[in-house]
Structures are given as C-alpha cells and as structure tokens.
Amino acid sequence: MLNDIYNKRIIELAGNIPRLGRLPDPDATATAHSKLCGSTVKVDLKMSGDTITDFAHDVKACALGQASSSIMASHVVGSTASELRELRETVRKMLKENGAPPQGKWDEIKFLEPVRDYKARHASTLLTFDAVVDAIGQIEAKAKQPDTVQG
C-alpha cells in the first residue's frame, strides 16, 4: 500500500532537510531531474582531495526525494567519492534488485526500502544520489585537466 512508503520517518526526514540553499563558491554543481514526477534536486559540492568538505542543495521534490536528500545532507560531509558512488549503487540495487539497504551512517535509507514496490517512485528517490555522484565526477574531471595558460 502507498501508505507504506510514506511512513512516519519519511515524513519527518522530508520535513527537516539540513543544508538547504546554495554554496557561494562550489567546486561543482549538478542537477538531477525526474521526468516522471517533475522532482528536481540541485547540489553544490566542495571537495578536498577525495573527501566532501561542504554541501548544499536546492530540493524541489516529493516527500521521497526530500527524505533521501535529507539523509544525504546529514552525512555527506566527510564522506569520500568512492563511498558515495558505492552508496548510490547500493540504493539502486535496494530499489531495483531487492538488495539490502546500506549499513552504518547511511542506515536510515532503510526507511526508503518500501519504495522498491513502486517503480514510478525510484527516480525521485535516487535524485540526490545521482546529483552528488555527477558533481564528484565534475570535480575529478577538472582536477585531471592541465591548468590553462592565461595569455
């Protein structure tokens, strides 16, 4: 039943999203959009080496997109690029392949597990994870490019 995915904890997370807004000088900005429901999440990211040092986001999403963004914002600073890529894959498998939810600091994602039965809700749930991984990729790509010489 649809009420299962909008459980009390999902509503609490959606109503208390940390780190809302934009960073003044992000290393990268990425936007993820669900064509199906119209939800959009825009993230700003700062990194030092392989570690996230600052994060902000603009969340215009349903309760599921808001809840997953809330979980991301609570734990993203201090996380590494590889950890966040692995997290996105774990959440994707949880929703699409009956995989187990993540453990440790990301264990609140278990409250999104009932979404697996509602394929139309997968995209909005994954938005924040996709946007963060996209932003990390942008930062890594910039770091690999040689500095352009100003003339």
General shape: globular
Determine the N-to-C terminus distance: 63 Å
Counting helices, strands and paired strands, the structural category is alpha+beta
Put simply, the count of helices is 5
Total strands: 3
Give Rg in angstroms: 16 Å
Strand content: 15-25%
Mean of pLDDT? 94
The helical percent reads 40-55%
Largest sheet: 3 strands, antiparallel
Strand order of the largest sheet: 1-2-3
- Low-pLDDT residue spans: none
The helix/strand order is HHEEEHHH
InterPro entries: NIF_FeS_clus_asmbl_NifU_N (IPR002871)
Pfam families: NifU_N (PF01592)
Domain NIF system FeS cluster assembly NifU N-terminal: 6-97
Protein name: Iron-sulfur cluster assembly scaffold protein
Topology:
Blueprint lengths: L1 H4 L2 H8 L12 E6 L6 E9 L2 E10 L2 H13 L5 H16 L25 H23 L7
Antiparallel strand pairs: 1-2, 2-3
Question: Could you please describe the fold and organization of this structure?
Answer:
With about 150 residues, this protein is α+β, with helices and mostly antiparallel strands. It is built from 5 helices and 3 strands; from the N terminus they run ααβββααα. It is globular. The relative contact order is 0.21. The mean pLDDT is about 95.
Attribute tags:
single chain; 151 residues; alpha+beta; 3-stranded antiparallel beta sheet; 42% helix; globular; NIF_FeS_clus_asmbl_NifU_N; Iron-sulfur cluster assembly scaffold protein
